[in-house]
Amino acid sequence: MTKPLIEIDHLVKKFGDNTVLNDISETINQGDVIVVIGASGGGKSTFLRSLNLLNKPTSGKIAFEGTDITGLSEKELDQVREKMGMVFQQFNLFPNMTVLENIKLAPMKVKNATDAEATAQALALLKQVGLEDKAEAYPASLSGGQMQRVAIARALAMSPDVMLFDEPTSALDPEMVGEVLKVMQDLAKSGMTMIVVTHEMGFAHEVADQVWFMDQGVIAEKGTPEQIFSAPKEERTKDFLSKVLAQ
Amino acid sequence: MKKKWMRWLTALLVLLSFLGFSGINHVQAADDSLQKVKDKGVLVMGTSPDYPPYEFLVNDGGKNTTVGIDISIAKQIAKDMGVKLQIKSMDFDLLLVGLQTGKVDMVISAMTPTSERKQSVDFSELYYTAEQSIIVNKADAKLYKDKDSFVGKKIGVQTGSLQADLAKEQMSSSPQLGLAKYTDLVLALKSHKVEGIVAEEPVALAYVQHDPDLALINGKFTLDPSENGQAIGFAKGATSLVAAANKSIDKIKKKGLIKQYMTEAADKMTTNTTDTSMIHYWKYFAKGIGYTLLITAISVVIGVILGTLLALMRLGKNKLLHALAVAYIEFVRGTPLMIQVMFVYFGLGIFLDIPALLAGIIAVALNSGAYVAEIIRSGIESIPVGQTEAARSLGLSQKQTMQSVVFPQALKNIWPALGNEFISLIKESSIVSIIGVTDLIYQLKVVQTATYKGVQPIIVAMVIYFVLTFGLSKILGYFEKRMKHDEATH
Questions:
Q1: Which end of chain B has the lower number of beta carbons within 10 A, N or C?
Q2: CB contact B413 to A (< 8 Å)
Q3: A153 to chain B: nearest residue by CA?
Q4: Could you please report the per-residue DSSP string of B51-120?
């Protein structure tokens, strides 16, 4: 039996009068790879950022590994966030630190790892993402694809239980998208639970266990990639897919 | 007493008393001012030592020593009381404030007991009465006979002085230029910004004797015998101190000691001016540099700590702390540093006896903190929110995020602005000279007074300030480059 990792219960998020997430209740099981698709402004990013409470829900509950995290203090949240790695569209590497320092920072500060431990782990992760030769480089000298792979390695350094990807390839030049998706695909194969907001339909098709289509603040339709891409039931899903696939 | 400052300080004192502070009023039913001085064993006199032969500074074995007729008189008074004499220097304009706030027990600074001044302080009897003269350029000496020859010509006076009042009343058709220092007035005379300077005869003589380009004419002013002359100022109600001083003055007059004091002062002035090269006075400037750097360095450190704290308060979620920080920053930025210096020294000085140097450092540091706070705030706000989000998503706490991610980047961004603030501090700290802190500006005035040379000390001080700020600018530039280095490793 699969174990629920994240349980979302009547999640609502409003920015002022604008309801961005409208009563979402879903469960994400351990090992799931979920790809969230949908038009811009549909609430995908807000949904993802609500899961680790970078955005605080207006109402509703989110349980992570069985614990409701919506009522936690900032200090308790820090401990939850360690276990939820996040990768951003804009990479958000720390420009004042080398690649190695970027990856070592959180293990050393939060987990009190020694410099030697953190370095060994960081180098192993860099090897995993194919960038072991960039350990001493500063982010400004890397390409977008390289920066995003470092960002993934940085998130993995905290040994998270789930990885959240917020449009990880949207800011990349087309020729660099492949190298990042490859790393993510390998990660999925290794059994990591992943929630990926993306416009890469090929990736969704190949890697996802489930595809969620978000529209106007709700999960309008969900299913296996085959169900969503070959036989969408909802009119708005068809509409969206025909626009995206026509490109 | 310059009226502008008087108004400010009165307002300040009124404000303080509104806030519920007491102890401003030193008047007590039974006057114990003399007993108090005797108890502490020290008589503190305030003076503005830029007025030879009454009070001026000499280089006594490398040390600044205040000497002159007034100092000799003060020594005699202290001796008669059986206490030690301590001299506090400050701008002439601030002397009466010093009295009112208890910074000094008496003021001897060739001060004339005008009826205006009598309203705020008590005076001893006159210890000296002098004629009023006018200093002119020697080349023009034939053009002027007395005060009436200056119709339509600009005349120089020391601000807040008896001479300023006299000129206003009896030379009403001559526009006035008021400056705080006689050395500056002489400069104005030589560059024909004014055509004459009204000064007391001994003072005028001192300048004329040391400068062959100057000449002296008798002003022939009509003088009120009760107001013409010098007396010692005391806090209102300090009758026992006044009585003690009067006793000493009587003795000095009876023995004819003033004449002797004058000769001594003249001797000291001659030794002062035997070598007027700037090199001879290098120790003065060196001491000034030392104090300027000391004040700046301490203020920078305190300013950065305070500024960081204020910036975090302002950016934080706590509404009370936020409001406090905003109020502090706005208030400090909205009031002149000069007023803040006076507030700390005289205003807070009522409750705490803060030495001038410490008061200066406190004021400059508190002032700098407000500016640094705004620089740091802008630096923190310049860091994209994604940096914070990335750090927090890794499990770093708010504090760790600030320390390891946001602050180091912010520091790099604000470095030029911070550097600018530090360079301004070197220059702006010069304002502490008004309360007698011996910084570079103060020493510049000392050298001007001692050498009767106006321009050269200014040039020396200017060059020194430039070397200091340029040096600092270079050092800051070096660190800026080092911080940029992380982006240059392509």
A1: C
A2: no
A3: B394
A4: BTTTBEEEEETTEEEEESHHHHHHHHHHHHHT-EEEEEE--GGGHHHHHHTTS-SEEEEEE---HHHHTT
A46: Cβ–Cβ under 8 A, 6 or more apart, which residues?
A13, A20, A21, A55
SS3 B438: coil
- The pTM assigned to this predicted structure is 0.73
Is the minimum CB–CB distance between A76 and chain B shorter than 8 Å? no
Q: What is the pLDDT of residues B188-235, one digit of tens each?
A: 998 899 999 999 888 888 888 888 889 999 888 888 776 678 899 999
Nearest Cβ partner of B409 from A86, A95, A141?
A: A95
Are A212 and A37 a contacting pair, CB within 8 Å? Answer: yes
Q: Residue type at A63?
A: A
pLDDT in tens, B141-187: 889 988 889 999 999 998 878 888 889 889 989 998 888 888 889 88
**What is the C-alpha separation between B220 and B403, in angstroms, rounded?**
73
Write the single-letter amino acid at B68.
Answer: G
Whether residues A106 and B395 touch (CB distance < 8 A) is answered with yes
Chain centre to alpha carbon of residue B270: 27
Given a cut of 70, is residue B6 above it in pLDDT? no
Residues in chain A within 8 Å Cβ distance of B390? 86, 88, 92-94, 151
Asked whether the beta carbons of A114 and A85 are under 8 A apart, the reply is no
- Kindly indicate the confidence band of residue B438, based on its pLDDT and cuts at 50, 70 and 90: confident
Tell me the two tokens of residue B83: 């206490």
pLDDT score at B387: 95
Contacts of A27 (CB under 8 A, 6+ apart): A4, A6, A7, A8
Reduce the DSSP state of residue B155 to 3 states and report it: strand
